[in-house]
Design a protein that fits this description.
There is one protein chain. With 162 residues, the protein is mostly helical. It has one domain. Helices cover 72% and strands 0% of the residues.
């Protein structure tokens, strides 16, 4: 059981990173599937009065989302090294946020579960990454708490114990 507890976080981190890094080739090269997805989302946002939100220069463009996925992957993979272990939790938090948005947009917008006619593979991958990131956040909760405490101490300028 101890071996499983020691390997599980690393396995989840690598799994999430592989999915995130694989998606970058679509997001950063203007792949037609990516254009279709973000185009549909942009049309939907435009119908709500938020035109351009998902466009190339929009707040949630494929490049912004891809950049966040790249940052999450870097943190998750750096967390494989003992010195940077707490980065895994932060990478998982970023991944959880990204996938929460992705799943929400698949479910609650006209995008739908199967925008690429791939049998819902993209949606299932998002769900698998979301679950993996949630488990990883739970497993790395102590490191995350320590890291958040360090940030608090740096911002307030006093030790946490006071």
């Amino acid at each position: 059981m101890e071996k499983l507890k020691s390997f599980l976080p690393h396995t989840l981190a690598v799994f999430c990173s592989v999915i995130f890094l694989d998606s970058l080739r679509y997001k950063f090269t203007d792949h037609p599937n990516t254009q279709e997805i973000f185009g549909r989302l942009n049309e939907w946002a435009g119908s709500l009065g938020a035109d351009g939100l998902f466009a190339h220069s929009g707040l949630f463009s494929q490049y912004v989302i891809g950049g966040a996925e790249l940052m999450a992957s870097i943190a998750l993979l750096l967390g494989l090294l003992p010195r940077f272990r707490r980065l895994q939790g932060f990478g998982a938090l970023i991944g959880l946020a990204i996938m929460s948005g992705a799943i929400s947009f698949h479910v609650f917008t006209p995008l739908g579960i199967d925008p690429n006619n791939d049998g819902g593979g993209l949606f299932m991958a998002a769900c698998a990454v979301w679950i993996s990131c949630a488990v990883l956040v739970f497993l790395r909760r102590k490191e995350l708490g320590y890291g958040l405490g360090q940030i608090k101490e740096a911002l307030l300028g006093k030790p946490i114990s006071e």
